[in-house]
Amino acid sequence: MALTQFTNLDFDQIKTSIKDYIRSNSEFTDYDFEGSNLSLLIDTLAYNTYITAYNSNAVVNEVFLDSAVLRQNVVSLARNIGYVPQSKKAARAVVSMLASVPTSGITSTTPTLTLKAGVVATGAANDLNYAFCVPQDITIPVSDNLGYFENIHVYEGAFVKTTFTVDNSQPDQKFILPNPGVDLSTLIVKVKPTEGDEISEEYTKVDNIVGVTTTSKKYLIQEVSGEKYEIIFGDGIIGRKLDNNNFIEATYVVTNGKEANGVSNLSFNGVILDSNNIFIPQSTLTINTVESASDGADIESVSSIKNYAPRLYSSQYRAVSANDYEAIIPMIYPNAASVSAYGGEELNPPQYGKVFIVIKPKSGSTISLFSKREILSNLKKYSIAGIVPEIIDLKYLYVELDSSVYYNPNSVSDIENLKSQVISSLTSYSRDKETNQFGGRVKYSKVVGLIDDTSNSITSNITKIKIRRNLNAAINFNAQYELCFGNEFHVRSDGYSIKSTGFKIYNNPQTLYLADYPTSTTSGRIFFFYLDSVGNPVIVNNSAGTVNYVKGEVLLNSVKIVSTVKENNVIEIQAIPESNDIIGLKDLYISLDIASSKFTMIKDIMSSGDNVAGTRFTSTSSFVNGNYTR
Questions:
Q1: Which of 310, 319, 524, 627 is the least crowded, having the fewest Cβ atoms under 10 Å away?
Q2: Please, which residues bridge with residue 164 across strands?
Q3: What is the DSSP letter of 520?
Q4: Is 586 in contact with 355 (CB distance < 8 Å)?
């Protein structure tokens, strides 16, 4: 009998296999293994087999991208298909600085001012101080004794300079940046013939070798162990080969990543020189923060590498289909948490030759105008002629719960604590990737199950679903509005499936609300109304807009809104979905809004035995209430 269970990962089964193998020998057929010293030897063999099987399994897992766990192995496997994981991304702020040049002395005729590379400002966030720097010198002209550094991008972190000397006597010489936490977008590589030379040539980074000739001043970058990076130069066939004694200067920013996001008040702490290398005093300079620090991000995670490496490989570094854009954008904009792209031909009416892109950033709710321009600029080398990419603003679809949770009072001592547990469970689910992305989905069965599974004391729950969009009103302007929910609406025969918070319009002092009235099973009209002294609706505009129940679209005719009850000029508009499973369609990003949800704890007096007959049991409607307003 052959011992076949050599890869089994269960110790007891391995031990049993060894015993069966020994029993196959006639001398041990009726041997009592448990009562003999041979049992110790069997245990030793089983342990050895178990450890060997575990190690073999772990080694084989590390060979494949899908199953690898160790970062260095995942990075190595991704490198085989041409993928370089995203580095840490420094939080970036935009500042403007005005320098006043002294009117006396040699600097009175200074034609230029130079902001030296390195630290230029400091700021604080969460009781921690952060330094911001520029990766290279910035020179501006002086006019009327004033120098204006306008919209300078500063990066959080330490400015570092690393040098190498090419030594051809070392055939395997590597140029590895010694610092982890490098922001590769700030890396500048220059090469001089020798260390003593003053003239240098700048080399630029490439992602692939397309178009690289024997004289191209290019370099590749790859991540190595310890989250460090290696610079790879050409070999004379693909890219220019470096000569012996060439001197390499690499400058870059070592950053803390996302920790500095939100820094807004920056103080100047840099060095400005005039054209005669004379120091300009800090007292003559004022600094203004144009944009707070944002877009800082940690190094790409293992799960993200596994997700994007094969997708980027399939795109072959060209943006043709929507999936290509979704794979490429996280590479050029590491702060992207989720990306949705779709062709203009899917719109009504269609817009041929366009691709629309929506990006959910890892920090913040929207991306800045500068980031949009930067992404579109970087996309040019991937896009094909005839297709125009356009980045549109992120739209949130909020999902709210109205849950009545029944519990056995005999099993609960602290009702508020039980309620907090329910909220905590749903908050964790709201952060799950299946909901926290474009194309996400809130699954009703999972929500109900999570509530029931929170505690054994919970006997059941009745949970109702509402969906909400926030309308940002153009105050004191006549404007039309379109709100797409991307989910079919439930149609109530008496209307009021759609509700809103209050607002005021031009030439009407009342606080108004909007609601719907169906004119067919697929469409209806939107009307404005206010509530009289006893709470009854009084209609003031019977044709304020239309609603398409099937598509989940609300269209408001031109209206001049002068104020809103909610802050920030927001009107909250809610609807009842036809299905309790909510999906994020196209540019809609689902947000399970636990903070705006309602949770009511109700005693289950039948389960507790207080009223087994159920005559005093509190029933809860499974349908949304009939309030006129939100």
A1: 627
A2: 248
A3: S
A4: no
